[in-house]
Structure formats: C-alpha cells, structure tokens
C-alpha cells in the first residue's frame, strides 16, 4: 500500500480512536504518506451547531496533535495536515485564512451540502434535478478555487445513475475535472459499507474521460487502514477501467 489522504479523527464526532493509533496502523499497513483530513469546522454567521465536524475551537489542538505526530514518527512515515472541506461559497474567505494561519498542507473536497450545512440539504440524500445540477456546480466552483487537492467521493450525489440526466451532469463534472487535472477519489468507506457510492455508472463516465483516480480510505477508525484486501479489490476494479490511477496528491 502507498499513500492515504482521507483520514478522520474522533473530533468529527462519528470517527473513533486516538490520532496516534491511526499513525501506528498506517505504519503497520505500509502506508508511506498519511494525510489527516478531518471534517473541517466552519465559522458560521448563524447559531447553527453542526454534529458531524470538529468545533471551531478544536482546530488548533487538531493541528498541534498532527504536527506532534508528524515529528515523532518522521523516520517511519510522512504525515500531512489536511482537512476535508465542503465548498461553502460564503465561508471560503474564512477557510483561506485558516489554511494560511494553521499552515494546512492540503484540503480535499467533501461536497456534502448545498450552500452550507445550515440548509440541511445533504447531497447524499435522494436529489431532484436542480440539486444534482447544484452538486456539480459546487464541484466546479471548488475546482476553480484552486484550493482542493482532490474530490472525495465525487459520486456522493444520489440520483438514479441510469437516468440520462445523471449521465449528462456527471459527464460535465468528469470533463471539467479532466480539463483541470483534478483527481477523483474512489472511496473505500462507501465501497466496504455498501453505500450508494462508489457508483459503477459514475466510474464508467470517469473512464470515458480518462480521469485521474485516487483511492481514499476515508478512515473513521484506525484499523480500517489495515484492510489490504479491500484496497486491492478497489485497485483491481480501477485497473479494469480507462482511468489514470495515481497515489500522490499535488499540494497547492
Ligand atoms: Zn465522516
Ligand atoms: Zn471523509
């Protein structure tokens, strides 16, 4: 196994284990570069309290913890400090300031919500046409921002994947990602837990556009990093497609 850039911590309230346990499991799994990318906090302009991400006041401690482990294990593994971030347009200026302030190495796009989670419109629930289009529009704006190193679970948008409208919109996404050299993640968490993603129809579209594909564990527990067989299964599947498999991200 090589690199993994999609790793959570307990701070997001739905992952388990100590940060150091993720590092130990990654070393055991033979991972060379491990990126932590826990669900980012946002600085809301409403009293909204999210339940699936770290609190804003945990960010500093998160960064310090990963930085400490990076130094402690530097002879065994290369650790990066990242975040999984939505594209919340009105809060992007804030996001840029924290990337700068905390010297975040990279961020990945987890396009979970329409506009912001304050709307409660989750792209992973069954969507109408308008929201499927919005999902792709958010991804395209995120690509244009130049902030993100890859798109996590690009097939999170939930829609009938046999419908021509799905094909049209996802083709728009894959074509744009190809044009701007933006890798798409094959998400192992969805793969092992039987979620609606990774979606075969989506990956056939990505194959047509020869997109870059990167495998991400989306680890929410340390031991999930040890599952070599699921990684190899994903690798075999991707190898059967016309995608370009990569294992290292470019950092802005
Ligand atoms: Zn999560
Ligand atoms: Zn994630």
Q: Give the rounded overall mean pLDDT.
A: 97
- What is the strand content? 5-15%
Ions, cofactors and other ligands present here are: zinc ion
What's the oligomerization state? single chain
Q: How many extended strands?
A: 8
CATH superfamily: Metal-dependent hydrolases
**CATH architecture label:** Alpha-Beta Barrel
Low-confidence stretches: none
**What is the CATH topology descriptor?**
TIM Barrel
Query: In CATH, what is the class?
Result: Alpha Beta
Query: What's the number of structural domains?
Result: 1
Shape by Cα distribution: globular
The arrangement of helices and strands along the chain is: EHEHEHEHEHEHHEHE
Largest sheet: 5 strands, parallel
What is the count of DSSP helices, taking H or I runs of 4+ residues?
Answer: 8
Q: What would you say about this model in short?
A:
By secondary structure, this protein is of the alpha/beta class. The protein is built from 8 helices and 8 strands.
Q: Notable features of this structure?
A:
252 residues, alpha/beta, TIM Barrel, 5-stranded parallel sheet, 3-stranded parallel sheet, 38% helix, binds zinc ion
Provide a descriptive summary of the structure in words.
This protein has 252 residues and is α/β, with parallel strands linked by helices. The protein has a single domain (3-246), classed as TIM Barrel, CATH 3.20.20.140. It contains 8 helices and 8 strands; from the N terminus they run βαβαβαβαβαβααβαβ. A 5-stranded parallel beta sheet has the order 1-2-3-4-5, covered by helices on one side. Helix 4 (129-145) packs parallel to helix 5 (164-179) and helix 5 (164-179) packs across helix 7 (200-208). The chain is globular. The two termini are 24 Å apart. One zinc ion binds at residues 8, 12, 14, 39, 220. One zinc ion (ZN) is lined by residues 6, 8, 84, 110, 152, 218.
């Amino acid at each position: 196994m090589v690199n993994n850039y999609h790793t959570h911590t307990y701070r997001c309230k739905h992952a388990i284990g100590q940060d150091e346990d993720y590092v130990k499991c990654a070393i055991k799994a033979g991972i060379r570069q491990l990126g932590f990318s826990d669900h980012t906090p946002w600085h809301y302009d409403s009293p909204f309290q999210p339940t699936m991400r770290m609190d804003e006041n945990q960010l500093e401690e998160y960064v310090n913890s990963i930085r400490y482990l990076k130094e402690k294990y530097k002879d065994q593994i290369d650790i990066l400090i990242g975040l999984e971030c939505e594209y919340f347009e009105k809060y992007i200026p804030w996001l840029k300031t924290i990337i700068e302030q905390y010297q975040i190495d990279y961020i990945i796009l987890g396009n979970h919500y329409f506009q912001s989670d304050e709307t409660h419109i989750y792209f992973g629930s069954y969507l109408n046409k308008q929201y499927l289009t919005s999902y792709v529009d958010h991804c395209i704006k995120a690509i244009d921002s130049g902030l993100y190193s890859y798109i996590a679970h690009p097939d999170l948008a939930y829609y009938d994947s046999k419908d021509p409208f799905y094909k049209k919109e996802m083709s728009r996404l894959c074509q744009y990602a190809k044009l701007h050299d933006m890798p798409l993640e094959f998400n192992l968490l969805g793969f092992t837990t039987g979620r609606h993603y990774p979606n075969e129809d989506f990956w056939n579209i990505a194959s047509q556009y020869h997109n870059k594909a990167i495998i991400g564990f989306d680890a929410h527990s340390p031991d999930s990093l040890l599952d070599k067989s699921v990684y190899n299964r994903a690798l075999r599947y991707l190898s059967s497609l016309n995608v370009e498999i990569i294992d290292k991200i470019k950092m802005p």
